[in-house]
């Protein structure tokens, strides 16, 4: 079933969106219906590591630079600049044709998912002479969208990297500086990329129901006024090309209270995307297993609060409770868990903490397996308090705690996702009517 069909009934009120004032003192709005509600929550995975390389997802592509050698190769930008355009194009073309296959898409549908989120960098649409990136992604994107349609999956296209980098993460395509807002040219080229993505969406209107216009803009390195201006400009640009397509905006890592100040409550045809990881900040990373489960209840509360204003999805989450996946924190870098990454932790999370076996499903004992299954169910409960979720990632080469297909086929993620054995959700027959409450939450 296509969520888009359900949206056919939603009246499209384009520019009203940004005229809303959300005047102070107006009564609190009722919770929204969920996006695509007649078809149940969004349940999906990200196709990460495909059009935007991340060393930890596909370490085989980066192995040649391991252990000394050329330490400059840390992201797609430096990958291509080290190899040169011809060799980079040859390797990436091979990668684009093999990292996601029709068999994978069929598997995702068989696992009970109804959506995929497809990250792609601006350079698939616009490259300047002095940029090392190569092109050729689009025919592969078109092919994947064809498979998605065939196997009844809907898609969100996600602009994951913009010129200058919106967050300095390797997964923006360019590690280091947050330079997106340093020139008008960067903004203009981002808008061109949004328009190009909208054209793809328009050609696949029965499969692509939404476009995320920029992933994870970092509030700490950007002007939020500038980010909001970009959201408004992007909305107008792509709605002209792909009317009926929903705009997804990322929360820029800001809590619901901040978004309430931005007066977004009247925005229409907009989904807010929030990401939930447990391994990148100290207070989550050092939690006990029980605390990880309990923390999902706080996240559910946050999703509910967001969801009173805008449809809300959790566009990225995983089962990781350590940051031990090799190169997760950047190519060649260590982990906070065992003290081998010395950013904010000073030493390991507890004396003798080791990364050995943490991302290796074969090494997990029965207690650990049960915990991961509970953690999966607790998070699904939490994110279905909004419009649903996308796990990161559909697959990884090595990092099993981030590998949906592997976790699901080993029984650590429910198949289909509604098949919950630990959560009370499994007792619910109509997810739409009930106020989901996880057994881990004491409210
Ligand atoms: C994963 O764990 C198993 C069992 O402990 C071990 O035999 C295997 O070598 C490990 N794999 C990796 C890649 O470390």
UniProtKB/TrEMBL annotation:
GO terms for cellular component: cell surface; extracellular region. Gene3D superfamilies: Glycosidases. InterPro entries: GH, Glyco_hydro_5, Glycosyl_hydrolase_5. Residues 93-317 form the Glycoside hydrolase family domain. It is found in: Secreted. It catalyses: Successive hydrolysis of beta-D-glucose units from the non-reducing ends of (1->3)-beta-D-glucans, releasing alpha-glucose. One of its GO terms (molecular function) is glucan exo-1,3-beta-glucosidase activity. Residues 1-25 form the signal peptide. GO terms for biological process: cell wall organization; glucan catabolic process. Its EC number is 3.2.1.58. Its main location: secreted. Keywords: Cell wall biogenesis/degradation, Glycosidase, Hydrolase, Secreted, Signal. Belongs to the glycosyl hydrolase 5 (cellulase A) family. This is glucan 1,3-beta-glucosidase. It comes from Coemansia javaensis.
């Amino acid at each position: 079933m296509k969520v888009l069909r359900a949206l056919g009934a939603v009246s499209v009120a384009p520019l009203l969106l940004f005229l809303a004032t959300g005047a102070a003192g107006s009564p609190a709005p009722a919770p929204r219906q969920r996006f695509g509600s007649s078809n149940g929550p969004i349940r999906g995975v990200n196709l990460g590591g495909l059009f935007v390389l991340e060393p930890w997802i596909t370490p085989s592509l980066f192995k040649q630079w391991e252990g000394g050698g050329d330490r400059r190769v840390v992201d797609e930008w430096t990958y291509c600049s080290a190899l040169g355009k011809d060799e980079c194009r040859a390797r990436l073309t091979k990668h684009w044709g093999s990292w996601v296959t029709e068999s994978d898409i069929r598997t995702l549908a068989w696992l009970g998912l109804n959506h995929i989120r497809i990250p792609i960098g601006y350079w698939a649409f616009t490259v300047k002479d002095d940029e090392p990136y190569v092109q050729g992604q689009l025919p592969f994107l078109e092919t994947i969208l064809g498979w998605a349609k065939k196997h009844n999956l809907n898609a969100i296209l996600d602009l994951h990297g913009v010129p200058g980098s919106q967050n300095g993460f390797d997964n923006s395509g360019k590690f280091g500086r947050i330079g997106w807002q340093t020139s008008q040219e960067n903004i203009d080229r981002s808008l061109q990329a949004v328009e190009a993505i909208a054209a793809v969406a328009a050609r696949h209107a029965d499969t692509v129901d939404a476009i995320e216009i920029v992933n994870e803009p970092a509030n700490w390195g950007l002007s939020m006024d500038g980010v909001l201006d970009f959201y408004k400009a992007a909305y107008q640009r792509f709605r002209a090309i792909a009317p009926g397509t929903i705009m997804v905006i990322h929360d820029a890592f800001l809590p619901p209270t901040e978004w309430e100040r931005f007066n977004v409550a009247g925005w229409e045809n907009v989904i807010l995307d929030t990401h939930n990881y447990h391994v990148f900040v100290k207070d989550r990373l050092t939690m006990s297993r029980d605390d990880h489960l309990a923390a999902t209840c706080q996240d559910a509360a946050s999703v509910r609060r967001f969801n009173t204003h805008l449809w809300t999805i959790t566009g990225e989450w995983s089962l990781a409770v350590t940051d031990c996946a090799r190169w997760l924190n950047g190519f060649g870098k260590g982990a906070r868990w065992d003290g081998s990454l010395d950013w904010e932790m000073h030493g390991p999370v507890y004396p003798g903490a080791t990364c050995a076996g943490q991302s290796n499903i074969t090494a997990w004992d029965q207690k650990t397996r049960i915990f991961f299954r509970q953690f999966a169910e607790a998070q699904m409960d939490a994110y279905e308090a909004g419009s649903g979720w996308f796990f990161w990632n559909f697959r990884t080469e090595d990092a099993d705690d981030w590998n949906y297909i592997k976790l699901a086929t080993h029984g650590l993620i429910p198949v289909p996702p509604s098949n919950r054995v630990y959560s009370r959700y499994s007792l619910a027959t109509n997810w739409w009517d009930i106020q989901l409450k996880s057994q881990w939450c004491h409210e």
